[in-house]
Amino acid sequence: MGSIPDPGELTELTQPSFDEFQRQTSLMTSCTLLWKELSDHINSLEQNLMKQSETLKRKIEALDSETKASLDSLKKRELSIEDSVKIALSRVEFNTKAAMRTLGDDVEDNPDGEVDDGDGLLQHLKSTCLKMEAKEFWSFVIGKKKEIDLLREKIPAALSECIDPARFVMEAISEVFPVDKRGNEGGSDLAWACVLILESLIPVVVDPVIGKSRILVTPSMKEQAKEIAETWKKSLEERGGIENVKTPDVHTFLQHLVTFGIVKKEDLEFYRKLVVASAWRKQMPKLAVSLGLGDQMPDMIEELISKGQQLDAVHFTYEVGLVDKFPPVPLLKSFLRDAKKAASSILDDPNNSGRAAVCSYLLILIVCLVPMICFTIYSTILMILDYTLFT
User: What parts of the sequence cross the membrane (predicted)?
Assistant: First the structure.
């Protein structure tokens, strides 16, 4: 066995080779690069952690702010309940006494419901409301369609005289909503009266202290309103689905949901289909927002454009403030091109000479006025053309 050399003993130094030097240099370079890569990675992780920490901090602050706002709102609602109940009770007491006085009066009612002016109309409406004569109220309203603007002004004041306005309204429109009980003898469409009465009920049932965020409808009436809504939904199958239901009926249903505050989040897609199918109705954009469809408006407008309903799309964009995203001028130009094509096909049809003359006149009117008229004017003219061409 060879002896182990003494570490302190000088040994013969060997000359390092150039290859070994290159190997060592390469190793040092690799270590340096690896160290730099690790350092950069650690710095990147630190920066990401700081960003996530800041984001989390902002979210916590926002959540704290929202929580505080929600707690303040709940506290305000809780404190307002007593005042709201007092106001509601005093109103009921006042209306009860007024109803008793009305019942005790010997004043002869006009059997034909004729009234001389707005005061007379209001007095007649109040009389039926005080006595809770829903059927007579309904008959009087539908007989005054020519005075619909006056009715819209006076009905809320009359409904405020009711002991139970919500019950009164549901009973008043029950002849035609949720289903038309007149059968084949139904005659004219009375959905306009339903919508008018339901709209007029809103200012009567809103909380007098905190407003529309709380609807003063008793739990039993709200449950009854939900049952009515479910009955209407089930009747869709008998009518052939959403595509075949009349737009005025859709309007009444959606207004019923908004008035009584019974919108369901799980039914938003169903509401969306109803709104799109009846988009030409003037009140649909506002109803859509009230139904909770505000976030879906851009997609709904895109759908209307794809269906060739540019006028409806323009109406929606103005109502919800999306004019920048959906400029109306290109949409109107597109509609004008489609309208010209449709009018040309009608003009070429000898069997539709009268209808074609109307279309031709309206087209000339649009070409002259579209560049200069405001949205309200052109929407009216174009809507007339829309009905003429496509109904």
Answer: 361-385
